[in-house]
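Lab notebook: predicted structure, single chain.

Context: the supervisor wants predicted structures on file for every construct in the current expression panel, including those that have not yet been purified. This is the next one on the list. No modifications to the sequence; it matches the entry in the shared construct table.
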Amino acid sequence: MFQISSLIIYLTISFYITVFVGYKCYKIGSIFLINFVENEQICHSINQLLLVGYYLLNLGYIAISVNSWPQIENWSHLFYTVSIKLSNILFILCFLHFVNILTIYISRKKQKINL
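Prediction complete. Output recorded below exactly as produced.
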């Protein structure tokens, strides 16, 4: 019972977080990309590719992390395991967001220097 409950909780929360953050970054990130790439059609295509790559990476990690799921014996172990696994997902999301923003910042800086 604890095993199935923990997996359902983990998959539900991690899937929701991944889709919500991805959609928000997709909507808000287009403003940064339009500033960087002046062609709106190319900007939209790049933004969609980033979203697909983001979903594939995060949902793939979620699927892999289920494979290494420990045996859950009580409620405290359930909450501990789910929180550790969710913190890994959140760390990956933060890291990817930082890398994307840093890449855009460095590219924009180089573009201004070349002008």
